[in-house]
Amino acid sequence: MTTQGLIAPVTEPLWRIRLRLAWRGLTANWRLFKENPIGLIGLGIILFFALMALAHPVLMATVWETRVYDPIIGYDDQIAVHPAPPSARHPLGTDPLGRDVLSQLLYSTRSEFALGLLAALVSVVVATAVGAMAAYFGGIIDTIFMRIADVVLMLPFIAVLIVLTALLRFELIHLAIVYGVLVGFGGQTIVVKSQALSIKIKPFIEAARVAGGGHWHIIATHMLPNLLPLAFLYMMLTATNAIFAEAVLSYFGLLNIRMSWGIMLNTARVSGYLLAGPDYFHLIIPAGAAISLLCSAFYLVGRAMDEVVNPRLRKR
Amino acid sequence: MAKYVARRLIQVAVTLVVFQTLLFVILDAQPGDITNLYLMNPKVTPEARDMIRANLGLDRPPLERYVQWMRNALTGNLGVSFMHWPRSVVDVVLERAPRTIFLFVSAQLLSFTIGFVLGKQLAWRRGTPFEYGNTIIGVLFYTVFTPWFGLMMLIIFGLWLKILPVGKFLDPMLWRQSQYSDVTANTVFYGLIATGLLIGLITAVLLIATRNVIGKKQRNLRAAGLAVLGVVAVVAWALSGIGVLALDMLHHMVLPLIVYTLVTYAGSMLLMRNTMLETLGEDYVMAAKAKGLSDKVVRDRHAARNALLPVLTFLVINLPFALSGGIITESVFSWEGMGLTLLQAVQNEDIPLAMGALSVIGILALIAHLVADVMYAFLDPRIRYE
């Protein structure tokens, strides 16, 4: 005679239900992601680089002597002429300043990851917040942010960054934040906003409002979770571009960074080994290939995620 | 259509003003001013520094300086370059812009065509090794570290095979000959740009004129028209007396063009694949297949044409990114265009030239945007009757 007989009482705590749902969504998405070999290749490359980043501190602590193998201030006095070609002692040779190239390569991996992830995070936070707000409130807020996006969209980022480096002192963290903000206010906002618009008209938003949910509560708990997959996809693309931008600026010697793949190429360029022939390829090929590979890995993962996020692209 | 273009023009003007304001704010937010350069110089007293400041108008309130800045920008007065003293920034920029425009436009056209044709095939052959292989190669080119890639191409084609020149955009020895004493590089560039524009226009007219001719006849007509056009262009240049110089420049352009095209084509290719996949799922494509039309007709006539529009949008959004790629390509191949000018100006702390170059690159991006937008409105009537 009570409703207890009709509806089984929920004994499970709410957070466990939420966790289970999230887990189910994750495995479903992973199954879709796995179908595409392109994403798996990208993920494999990223894992490989992550191992490289982890390998550096381990190697420094065990095998490599700090005095010789330090990526920034190391110097090998056992070898008379630097840059030395690859040998058993230095698998990728040494650079014009007598530092080990492999050590530099491994050491830089960590900061590239940090840069890519930080820039991606900043851009996603800005883009989802602005996009969701613009879509939810509409009106003047929408107009202002969309006009800003139009202007940002027309800026050639590399050119703007080059000029900014002339005026400000740029380190890795500044670059990551400036880049993230530029991307976040630009194209990404527009994409997130159009997605948010389609969520805004869904019945559950209306239900939440009828139930008495405030504006910010609805944006935070009902809109943002639905925007996250798209935001995650754009994080991958931003990471690609941020790493690329850092490499370009470092290659031209415009950043205040002590070591990165771009700096390695810059060292070779400044000391005149760029066109010196195959004997000095160990100065340019590892760093150049590393930048290209990591960028393409993030991009490939982003593409594969596109097929997960965008149902219209799925195989039928 | 005219109304649409007018509205876009107003938007472009507003954006330009905002862009210039942004430049002013960036510059004005810097601590100190130009007189800081003389701080360590005992011969320049504080009074002298104040005088310099007063002469340059740096002691006025920010609003007044802003108005002055905008007035200067609108009248094309961008100051004097430090590096190329006493030449004005506008002079330097005008000298170098045609080189960038020529390289940029040809590379964009080439990469768009390649991307369109390949993307179509990728969607059609979804799930085959052809698709995966092409996607991976495309992404590799798209995300390759451009300076490094350009360098490797330079080493292979310029140093080892010696079939293409290493850097710069002309061969000075050729220009030393007396009969070319009054020819400047830009004369040739303007000629090349004009030729390109004419060929583009006539090709467009040709394609539109023959669009209702059916079957093999159409292909033959178009091929014949293009062949005649090509022959006329070559003969005209041969008779102009500076054909050798133009050929020399084109020879220098091959390598930057290849690199620039390779690093950008994948963008339109991958997007073309995606939009094509969406159109392939549409009912009208199934109807066309059910009607018994050949694969080629379904793919090229029914699916690809409808997939083209989003790709054009992408092209518009991607233009600034492509311009950035141009800056890198130019600096690797010492192609003395806007990008290299910007980079050199920044490396030599020539702030007026850097600001001028950035404004002009911004304006180029805006114009390219506008052209692509108008083209888009021309192709998609839904936009212009909004």
Could you walk me through the main structural features you see in this protein, from its secondary elements to its overall organization?
The complex is a heterodimer of chains A (316) and B (386). Chain A has a single domain (33-313), classed as MetI-like (MetI-like fold, Orthogonal Bundle), CATH 1.10.3720.10. Chain A is 71% helix and 0% strand. Chain A has helices at residues 14-34, 37-61, 66-69, 101-137, 139-153, 157-167, 172-185, 187-200, 203-210, 215-251, 261-270, 281-309. Chain A is elongated. The model of chain A has no long low-confidence stretch (mean pLDDT 85). Chain B contains 15 helices and no strands. The mean pLDDT of chain B is 83. Chains A and B meet through helix 2, helix 5, helix 6, helix 10 and helix 12 of A and helix 1, helix 5, helix 6, helix 10 and helix 12 of B.
